Inverse folding.
C-alpha cells in the first residue's frame, strides 16, 4: 500500500520520490549539501524544481562537487565552458551567481563559522513545523534573504529562501496527511 505524500511529489519520477521521502523537510546540517541546495534553489528561479532535480548530478559534476574554494576561482573561460554544458541550466546570470555565492559563502564561513551555524541560529537550532499549507514567503525568509543579499549572495530572494528553508528542513511543510510529516523530524 502506498503511503500518502505531499501533493507536489511526482510519484512517476523516482528522483522526486527520493527527494521528497529522504531529503525535503529533514533538518540538514551537512555544509556541502547546504551550499549545494542554496545554489540549486537559485537555479530553479522561473523553472520547476523537478527540472533542477533532474539535473542535480550534472550540476555536481559541472561545479566541482560544490567545492566553494574551486568555484570562487572560476574565470570567464570557465563561465563560457559552463554555458556550453547542456546538463545544467545555461543561464549566464545563474552561473555567475554560483561563483558570487561561493565567494560570499567563504566570507560568511569566516565570519560565522559555517553556513550551518548561520542558518540554524535563526531558529535556535529547532525546525519550524508548519500546518502544511502553501506558504511562499515569511518574515523569516524575508530577513534571511535581506541579510544574504547584503553579504553578496545572488538569487536569494525571499521566495527562493523559503523554498530553501523547506528543502533543508529549517521548515517542515509536509502536508498534514503526508506520511513523512512526522518521520522527517526523527531523521535529523
Amino acid at each position: 500500500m502506498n503511503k500518502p505524500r505531499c501533493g507536489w511529489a511526482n510519484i512517476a519520477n523516482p528522483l522526486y520520490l527520493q527527494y521528497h521521502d529522504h531529503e525535503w523537510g529533514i533538518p540538514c546540517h551537512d555544509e556541502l549539501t547546504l551550499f549545494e541546495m542554496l545554489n540549486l534553489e537559485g537555479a530553479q528561479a522561473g523553472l520547476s524544481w523537478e527540472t533542477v532535480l533532474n539535473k542535480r548530478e550534472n550540476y555536481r559534476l559541472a561545479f566541482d562537487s560544490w567545492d566553494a574554494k574551486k568555484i570562487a576561482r572560476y574565470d570567464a573561460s570557465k563561465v563560457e565552458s559552463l554555458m556550453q554544458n547542456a546538463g545544467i541550466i545555461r543561464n549566464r546570470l545563474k552561473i555567475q551567481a554560483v561563483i558570487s555565492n561561493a565567494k560570499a559563502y567563504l566570507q560568511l564561513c569566516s565570519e560565522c563559522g559555517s553556513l550551518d551555524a548561520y542558518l540554524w541560529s535563526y531558529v535556535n537550532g529547532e525546525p519550524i513545523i508548519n500546518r502544511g499549507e502553501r506558504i511562499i514567503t515569511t518574515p523569516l525568509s524575508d530577513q534571511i534573504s535581506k541579510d544574504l543579499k547584503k553579504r553578496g549572495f545572488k538569487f536569494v530572494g525571499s521566495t527562493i529562501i523559503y523554498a530553501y528553508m523547506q528543502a533543508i528542513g529549517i521548515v517542515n511543510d509536509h502536508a498534514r496527511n503526508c506520511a513523512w510529516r512526522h518521520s522527517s523530524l526523527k531523521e535529523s
Summary: The mean pLDDT is 92. The chain is about 55% helix and 0% strand. Strands lie at 128-129, 171-172.
